[in-house]
Amino acid sequence: MVDTDDAVADVAEDVDADGLGTAVIASIGSVALALYFYYVRGDKQRGQFVGLWPTTILAVASYFKLEEIRQKLDELDA
After folding, report:
1. Which residues cross the membrane (predicted)?
2. Is the distance from CB of 47 to CB of 37 less than 8 angstroms?
3. Residue 1: what pLDDT?
4. What span, in angstroms and rounded, lies between the C-alpha atoms of 51 and 41?
5. 51 CB-side CA count, 13 A
6. Using CA atoms, how far apart are residues 43 and 76, in angstroms rounded to an integer?
7. Helix or strand or coil: residue 44?
8. What's residue 43's pLDDT?
9. pTM for the whole thing?
10. CA pair distance 39, 32, nearest whole angstrom
């Protein structure tokens, strides 16, 4: 049982090292762009539309990260 626990810990470290860096940067950029459109340009509708992107970006990135974790755990079982 210790071998399995060590393998799962190794998978957790591998996944944690990768992180969601690119998605977080894209989300922060999207928030900045939304604020720009909303307050600077005065285009409130476009600002609100762009403001919806960060949740979508993070959700898609989380989905792919969970799939990566699932695949690595399936490889341990095989």
Report:
1. 20-39
2. yes
3. 46
4. 14
5. 12
6. 51
7. helix
8. 97
9. 0.73
10. 11
Q: What is the pLDDT of residue 76?
A: 86
CA-CA distance, 37 to 20, in Å (whole number)? 26
Task: Report residue 19 as tokens.
Answer: 């992180």
Helix (H) or strand (E) run with residue 47 in it = helix 44-51
| Helix H or strand E segment including 13 | helix 2-18
* Annotated domain spans of the chain: 2-77
Rg of the chain taking only CA atoms, in angstroms: 18
Q: Which residue has the tokens 């690595």?
A: 72
- 8 A C-beta contact, residue 50 and residue 37: yes
**Cα distance between residue 51 and residue 40, in whole Å:** 14
Are the C-beta atoms of 23 and 61 separated by less than 8 Å? yes
